[in-house]
User: What shape does this take?
Amino acid sequence: IPVYLQHAFVAIEDERFYKHNGIDLQGIMRAAMITVSDGEMSQGASTITQQLLKNNVFNAYNESDIEKIKRKVQEQYLAIKLETVMDKQDILENYLNTINLGNGYYGVQAAANGYFNKDVSELTLSECAVIASITKSPTGLNPIRHADRNKDRQNQVLANMKEQGYISDEEYNDAMLYMKFMFSHNSRAAL
Assistant: This one.
């Protein structure tokens, strides 16, 4: 799995991944404050470790708010435990190999094959941003059906990567130029 792809997911999904113990207290506090002010649970604070558990251990569909809170507490407990027996690289690899990336593609290898007709190891920085962009909404950010929405999220992925020091200004600018070229040739092959 290319380092760009790993960093793209961390930058957009869990910027403190390499620093926390399975839960992100800053993220939890931010989400709690937004929930209190909005009156509904609209912000996520799940770490990549928690998402790995949610996707592979829990059935998190059609939950009531009470069920969601109970599951989140269980996820947090298990995430802390998991990080005592599994290193960050293994957690990230497992997450990347099981995440739903739309079109029935689970894992980054399936997504690379499906969206770009290439092995995951051959992805460019821009293509890594396309794939990392999907996770928030595998249907709504599908790069084939909703290219414009995915492009907006790609921009955010690349901006986060630059801001967090994963890519240089030059790499960011090159990726943005490549994306502009890809979308000006609006076809599946030019994703």
About this structure: Residues 102 and 137 are 8 Å apart (CA to CA). The radius of gyration is 17 Å.
